[in-house]
Amino acid sequence: MTKTKYAALLRGINVGGNKKVPMAELRQVLQGIGHEDAQTYLQSGNAVFSSAARQDPAVLARALEAAIEAHFGFRVPCLVVEGAYLRAVADACPFPAADLEGKQLHATFCSEQPAESRFAPIDGPAYLPEEYRVGDRVIYLYAPNGLGRSKLAEALAKPAVVKGLDVTTRNWNTVAKLVELTRD
User: Fold this and answer.
1) In this structure, are strands 138-142 and 167-171 parallel, antiparallel, or unpaired?
2) Angle, nearest 10°, between helix axes 57-72 and 23-32?
3) DSSP string for 107-128
């Protein structure tokens, strides 16, 4: 039987001593709700796992959020995406990922497709050389000086853009590693 591989992207954990989620315990939580082959990457809330049956990623995300809250005592927003989706995101990148440093390119994953109207207030040329492009439930961000100094990242994180969406951002090195870890 073929297994489907998924990546779980947790938002806002292990930052500044808040919402501590040890990766070994996260793997146990994933296994405790029936997932197999649980692995984690870095300490920033990236996990991969497999399931014998293909499942709705949104349902998997809600189940993981509930299990994390039950285990750790606090809510952590989670996005779950299939490995095939991650590969499609990487393949569709509108920026020359192979020519950039991982800290210069980011992907903000969204729980659903953001409407183009959300981006209307953003004057793209005003942020050059930073640029963004919207893909399939993802916002690609090229920030040549890194995310921490990016004014465009601030604009893209405003409520007018992300309100009502679960979003979480990963640098391109992490995206590439998650693609590798979820490969069949």
Assistant:
1) unpaired
2) 120
3) EEEESSPPPGGGGTT--GGGGT
Q: Are 68 and 21 in contact (CB under 8 A)?
A: yes
End-to-end CA distance of the chain: 13
pTM for the whole structure? 0.93
Decide the pairing of beta strands 138-142 and 131-134: antiparallel
Q: Which of 155, 140, 62, 60 is nearest to 105 (CA)?
A: 140
**In whole angstroms, how far apart are CA 129 and each of 77, 118, 144?**
31, 21, 7
**DSSP structure class, residue 100:** S
CB 103 within 8 A of CB 110: no
- Describe the strand order of the beta sheet including 36-41 as a list of residue ranges: 36-41, 46-51, 4-10, 78-82
Please give the order of strands across the beta sheet that includes 105-110: 131-134, 138-142, 105-110, 167-171
Q: What is the pLDDT of residues 41-66, one digit of tens each?
A: 988 889 999 988 889 999 999 999 99
